Amino acid sequence: MRDMIDLLDIKIDVVFKDFFGDKSSKEILESFINAVLGLEGDDRIEVEEFLDPRKMRVEVRKPSAFVDLSVKTRRGERYIIEMQTYNHDGFDKRLLYYLGKDYTEQIEYHYHQPISSKNSNDKKAKKMIGWADLPKVHILAIIDFHRSQGEKNGILNHHEVVETYRFKPEISASNEHIFDHWKATIVDLKKFKSKPVNKLKTDKEIWIHILNNAPFLKEEERELLKKDPIFQRALERLEMLSADPKTRKAYEASINDQRDHLAVIEAAERKAHKEGEANKALEIAQTLLKQGLPVNQISEATGLSSEEIESLR
Predict the structure, then answer these.
(1) N or C: which end of the chain has fewer CB within 10 A?
(2) pTM for the full predicted model
(3) Domain boundary residue among 203, 228, 244?
(4) Are strands 137-143 and 78-84 parallel, antiparallel or unpaired?
């Protein structure tokens, strides 16, 4: 009996891209998208092409950032798949940027040599994608951070694990076919309540469970999941990536980078909190001084030194 391979966390970017972005295993990504979005029958998508994610580069700040995956379906629709493990300012606007950029990228010229012409001096014909041919674009963002119960970064936060946001016309419902061209779906991993593998009822639940718990799956749980052909293929691919020394090295480097980034964010938040508390104490001390309270009493009430209070006079 061979030793069981410790599985890597799919949520880490280098694993996520390799796991879902393998062209020879596109049925894994198809299964994930169809399950999470609840697409059935004729609505199910088939991936025709993996697009270059570098076209979706964000240059607002350095270093540049790219989307994790971008694909085109057989019906011509576009799907952007993004994994985000920490919150950051403007997360909602970043999703809108991706949607808009992918949509407008389609308006471009394509040059080709006319088939009927054998004369190399003939001018190349010019073909442009028509406005009516612009494809639907759907961004699927998987997030692994806590959102507030109300509104966070402009994104309304409801109780569902999977939330889809559509752009709807304010006045006439007859224009919904236009506004339906852009959609954004958020898969909130933090909202998913873990349960035993044998209690998972749908492919959507299984996929979210694997995303949340891949490193902790026991051997018997893996074998149970592998009874389904698609999850057998998925777990075997993850085992292959997890056993690859190069992938493991990149994985560990990515985790260290993420920890460093989170440490910087937490330090900045602590500093902001500390400065906010200090400003609050100074405001209270200023008020108490105006009311004529002795410096020693103000010091006890605010925690400020006598010198700091005297400087407010």
Answers:
(1) N
(2) 0.75
(3) 244
(4) parallel
